[in-house]
Amino acid sequence: MADFFQDSPSLENQYASDALLRSYLRRRLPATTLAEIEPGLHRLGERAITDILALGDEAEANPPRHVPYDPWGRRIDDIVVSAAWRALDRISAEQGLVATAYERRHGALSRVHQMAKLYLFHASSATYSCPLAMGDGAARFLELHGGGNAHARAAFEHLTSRDPEQFWTSGQWMTERTGGSDVSQTSTIARRDDVGGYRLYGTKWFTSATTSQMAIALARIEGAPAGGRGLSVFLIELRDEHGALRNIQVNRLKDKLGTRALPTAELTLDGTPATLVGGEGDGVRKIAALFNVTRVYNAVAAVSGMRRAVALARDYATRRTTFGKRLIDHPLHAETLSDLEARVRASFLLTFRVVELMGKHECREATDAERAILRLLTPVAKLYTAKQAVAVASEALEAFGGAGYVEDTGLPRLLRDAQVLPIWEGTTNVLSLDMWRAIERTGAFEPWLDDVRVRLGRTAAAPVADVVERIARYVSETQDSDRREAGARRLAFAIARVTAAMELVELAASEHADPDAASVAARWLRRDLAGVA
Ligand code: MFK
Fold it and tell me: Which of 170, 183, 205, 361 to mutate to test the pocket of ligand 1 (most atoms within 8 A of CB)?
């Protein structure tokens, strides 16, 4: 019997081989800006398949460990992470994965630059993108609400530093045992101390990136009213000058389905010193500045993971022979891969539309209408891309047959790590309701509708026009709140698909389109818009 060994899939430079990313950047960035940043993206695209990938694999193979006591019985609650995890932190700082957004060297387009870097980094990073997401969200929160507070200013400088010795990431401590969705039930109490600060008492149930230097936490100042309005936002520096946790006990690390390199813990705060930021009360509204950033990271992470899964599946299809020809030459397999490619592209363009608006908003260049569209599309992009990420990862694993189900291929991780994306940072249903909140409280639907109609006037996309009018009728005719709630997810998906359709069609029609842009847009209009509203 002849020996047969299957070639393993391999990856090319993640920037050079990503035709969509490159055509998107050509279209969106002035030529001089692209010329300036492209060498860095190319280098990062190479590192994403060499040293960063190796570090991500090493961090995954050496997950964090909780060491509650030192050898002599003192409670220390050390969380030991791998050298690789620490190296990913250094690389994040040096690459300016957060700093790029705040230096604003390219004005509003700095967010596009930064998220393009994150997109290249995430899939190789064993989800180091999580501490970065929360650090970036914390930076944005402090930028908006920090005022003249010296702690807040110092923390902002650390979060946005490129110096690995100075760089901080942050936790985001909202979730308690009562749940991650209804944070208005937060039971952590803040008591005033005698030096003008606060001490926090309570249990935080799901704190990701617990090795970060700081955290942004919700707590209720003693005597404040119940509900979200009675909550305030606090900045915590986790360790004292000797490195000891400040009255924080690590109860245990979570044993999670995926993101295994990422330390996620249950904590008890027992008099933890904290700085009130942004004044008393309205904590949920204020911390939204943070979680609206992490939701965009979630979407970028989703498209990054999808891109990786499809890149591997596509490469494998050129190496694997079945029934007398390569997988890629079987029309049904090729059709399956094209379908996945369309979903990645739609998700990417939807996400980067949000990134563009976010950059404009942060640089105070967004119009009222653009701010409203940003408010609407942030939950929509998060929920839609997260669901796509799970579906695409699952289909990509299937494209490897049994190998996709075997751990040492590294492939099952794609699915395990995707599954967190619809869960954290707001589930699909919670975010669908957030979309309605944006429509009802911010009047965010009409600006979106007007924008799509204007763009439709410039582009031939009849199927989109038809769906848009059905969505408009649905929103104006659905007044009953139970019916609104029950249909929220379908509406969110419809808005996502239409927004993606516009982006796909416009990119295909532009001089910067890559060779696949037109066929992907046509596929989207023919197949993926059908029956959405
Ligand atoms: C790689 C990617 C990495 C990501 C890493 C993350 C790891 C971290 C793990 C976690 O921490 S997961 C925890 C995540 N938890 C959430 O995201 C919370 C999910 N739940 C919600 O989002 C709920 O919708 C919400 C808690 C906001 C509902 O709370 P309430 O108290 O019922 O909200 P309410 O009363 O409707 O709104 C309070 C105020 O906030 C209102 O403002 P006003 O008082 O001025 O009217 C709202 O308009 C405002 N608000 C709510 N959501 C907003 C918002 N403003 C802007 N944007 C939003 N999205």
Answer: 183
Q: How far apart are CA 272 and CA 238, in angstroms?
A: 8
| 193: Cβ contacts below 8 Å, ≥ 6 apart | 199, 273
What number of other Cβ atoms are within 10 A of residue 485's Cβ?
A: 14
Nearest to 356 by CA among 181, 38, 109, 183: 109
Residue with structure tokens 């509203």? 533
Q: What is the helix, strand, coil percentage profile of the chain, to 5?
A: 60, 15, 30
265: phi then psi, degrees, rounded to nearest 5: -130, 165
What one-letter code names the amino acid at 62? Answer: N
Atom of ligand 1 at shortest range from CA of 301:
1
Show the domains of the chain with their CATH numbers. 170-282 (2.40.110.20), 438-528 (no CATH)
pLDDT tens digits, 343-364? 999 999 999 999 999 999 999 9
- Half-sphere exposure of residue 187: CA atoms within 13 angstroms, side-chain side: 9
Q: How far is the CA of 442 from the centre of ligand 1 (A)?
A: 15
Question: Residues with beta carbon inside 6 Å of ligand 1?
Answer: 129-130, 133-134, 172, 174-175, 180-181, 183-184, 208, 228, 284-285, 288, 291-292, 294, 297-298, 301, 424-426, 430, 434, 437, 441
**Atom 50 in ligand 1: which residue has the minimum CA distance?**
285
Q: What is the pLDDT of residue 533?
A: 45
Q: How far is the CA of 368 from the centre of ligand 1 (A)?
A: 21
Between the CA of 185 and the centroid of ligand 1 the distance, in Å, is 13
Phi, psi of 488, deg, nearest 5: -60, -40
User: Ligand 1, atom 57: nearest CA belongs to which residue?
Assistant: 288
Q: With beta carbons less than 8 A apart as the criterion, state whether 46 and 67 touch.
A: no
CA 291 / ligand 1 centre spacing (Å): 7
Which residues, listed in sequence order, are joined to residue 173 by a DSSP beta bridge? 217
- Per DSSP, the three-state class of 90 is helix
Between CA 142 and CA 121 the distance in angstroms is: 25
Q: Which of 144, 158, 135, 115 is nearest to 106 (CA)?
A: 115
Mean pLDDT score, 172-180: 91
Distance 388 CA to ligand 1 centre (A): 22
Q: What is the arithmetic mean of pLDDT over 65-70?
A: 97
Pairwise CA distance, residues 346 & 353, whole Å = 11
DSSP β-ladder status, 264-276 and 248-253: antiparallel
**pTM listed for this prediction:** 0.97
